[in-house]
Write a structure and sequence with these properties.
Elements lengths: L4 E9 L2 E9 L6 E5 L9 H12 L3 E5 L4 H10 L6 H17 L8 E6 L1 H12 L4 E7 L16 E7 L3 H13 L4 E6 L11 H17 L8
Parallel strand pairs: 3-4, 3-5, 5-6, 6-7, 7-8
Antiparallel strand pairs: 1-2, 2-4
Length: 224
């Protein structure tokens, strides 16, 4: 496979512009937007690790910041914006709209990959724009923070949780019961919340790649 083309992008979201990094392999099967959470950014080493695996599987990736630099400074002191799921979901939807209008991406099915509170934002966004989002993957996420939006999600949803991340595992099991579309929970044995154990993040990447390849390579019927 030829090396993917990468470019820095800016995405208009309401009154602000968000920074992102778009990577496109040759003949992409779809494109995955990463929704970071809990003080993270597009520079997250874990999400970049997963993004590289998706690119190897011929999936385009959009790593983006959901907060501006000024907002991130406020959040670093207060930690309040990272839990504002409504705000983060609006920013994810703005990015989904941007992907849909991008000449190189138009016509590709869209997936969302969310970690921590970013998973809640991804699911809330998917619930609001079902015709535009085909699949969602959550890594160590807090899908419970999406609240009643869980029952409105039509995108095929994969929840990945570490087997030793017991509180988050129980929250994901409860969220799984609320989801109404195609859904699955995968547990990575022995992994904790950040999947720092040997081989844990590789397993996350494998599961995510398989899920997105399966669901982004087919016609999106979520609007039906």
């Amino acid at each position: 496979m030829a090396k993917e083309a990468q470019s820095e992008v800016r995405i208009k979201a309401g009154l602000v512009e968000l920074e992102g990094e778009l990577a496109l392999p040759d003949s992409p099967r779809g494109v995955v937007l990463f929704a970071h959470g809990s003080g993270s950014s597009r520079h997250s080493t874990r999400n970049r690790f997963v993004a590289h695996a998706l690119q190897e599987g011929r999936l385009g990736t959009l790593l983006m910041d959901l907060l501006t630099a000024a907002e991130d400074q406020i959040d670093s002191r207060t930690a309040e914006l990272r839990f504002n799921v409504e705000l983060l979901a609006e920013r994810v939807i703005a990015a989904v709209d941007w992907v849909g209008s991008h000449p190189a991406l138009r016509g590709l099915n869209i997936g969302l990959f969310g970690a921590s509170t970013g998973a809640a934002a991804a699911l809330a966004a998917a619930a609001r724009v079902p015709a535009q989002v085909s699949a969602v993957v959550s890594r160590g996420g807090r899908p419970d923070l999406a609240g009643t939006a869980l029952a409105e999600v039509r995108a095929a949803t994969l929840l990945i949780v570490g087997g030793s991340d017991l509180p988050v595992l129980e929250l994901n099991r409860a969220a799984l019961r609320e989801l109404r579309g195609e859904k699955e929970l995968k547990i990575v044995p022995g992994a904790t919340h950040l999947f720092e154990e040997p081989g844990a993040l590789e397993e996350v990447s494998r599961l995510a790649q398989e899920w997105f390849q399966r669901h982004l390579g087919r016609q999106n019927t979520n609007a039906a």
